[in-house]
Design goal:
This protein folds into 2 domains: 129 residues, Diaminopimelate Epimerase, Chain A, domain 1 (Roll), CATH 3.10.310; 123 residues, Diaminopimelate Epimerase, Chain A, domain 1, CATH 3.10.310.10. The chain is 19% helix and 42% strand. The protein contains 6 helices and 18 strands. The chain starts with a strand and ends with a strand.
């Protein structure tokens, strides 16, 4: 039997933040098995981690429908699980070998830091039907290409919060997902966002670490700073710390294990 854990990431409270399943493999399993288990979990991502020795782990992420190249919250969930369950000492640094290169996780007094690749958004023309698909009457301030995603800035937090997307229409956009963001107005956070990815089986992701690899570089010149507190305004919500560096983005947050069990191999 293979250990599997349900973990809420980018939160310190159960039943909030972004849920992920973390599967601790004892040996490699077929991709078909991983995809079937991810569909069974029916969460935004299921992480599959395999120890390679000396603090190095192979890590892959699957949505209910497909494998993805980068996932922040499931990486945070994986690191938390490995430390919490004593797989690796709390003082050790973890290196995850992934389709997006090596990702480094370190434990801090305030949570976990993840060293992720930086994504610099570039302006593009608005996709036909984008405004209608997002269900917003707000003026769109900018449309950017951000790696595999589309990033859209709108004027106000309420414009982000009130979105009612047409998910079938969003599936037609040539992207993994659509990030919608606005400058924050609460005096405690710097910017807010929501993330929609029906093309990969996730209508709305509760908290999307990988999106902040682009959101940080997007907001850095606009807010004239490089360290941020970001809020994702999904129903569950979550807080992401973001630090923009030369070629990397440091994501930070907390996580909590909410269930554990085993699955047949």
């Amino acid at each position: 039997m293979i250990p599997i854990f349900g973990v809420d990431a980018f939160t310190d409270k159960p039943f909030s933040g972004a849920p992920a399943a973390v599967c601790l493999l004892d040996e490699e399993r077929p991709d078909e098995w991983k995809q079937a288990l991810a569909a069974e979990m029916n969460l935004s991502e299921t992480a599959f981690v395999l120890w390679e020795g000396s603090g190095i782990f192979g890590l892959r992420w699957f949505t209910p429908e497909t494998e993805v190249d980068l996932c922040g919250h499931a990486t945070l969930a994986t690191a938390h699980t490995l430390w919490e369950k004593g797989v690796i000492s709390e003082s050790a640094t973890m290196i995850f070998r992934t389709r997006s290169g090596d990702l480094v996780a370190t434990k801090t007094a305030d949570g976990i830091n993840l060293d992720f690749p930086r994504i610099d958004p570039a302006p593009v023309d608005a996709h036909a039907g984008l405004v209608e698909a997002l269900g917003t009457g707000a003026k769109i301030r900018a449309v950017m290409r951000a790696g595999d995603d589309i990033l859209v800035e709108v004027p106000a937090v309420d414009d982000v919060r009130s979105l009612r997307p047409d998910f079938n229409a969003l599936k037609t956009m040539s992207s993994r997902g659509v990030i919608v963001t606005a400058r924050s107005d609460d005096g405690e956070s710097d910017f807010v966002s929501r993330f929609f990815a029906p093309a990969v089986g996730i209508d709305e992701d509760p908290v999307t670490g990988s999106a902040h690899c682009a959101l940080g570089p997007y907001w850095a010149p606009r807010l004239r700073k490089t360290v941020f507190t970001a809020l994702q305004l999904s129903k569950r919500g979550g807080v992401v710390g973001v630090e923009v560096k030369d070629e990397r983005v440091i994501l930070s947050g907390k996580a909590v294990i909410v269930w554990e069990g085993t699955v047949a191999g």
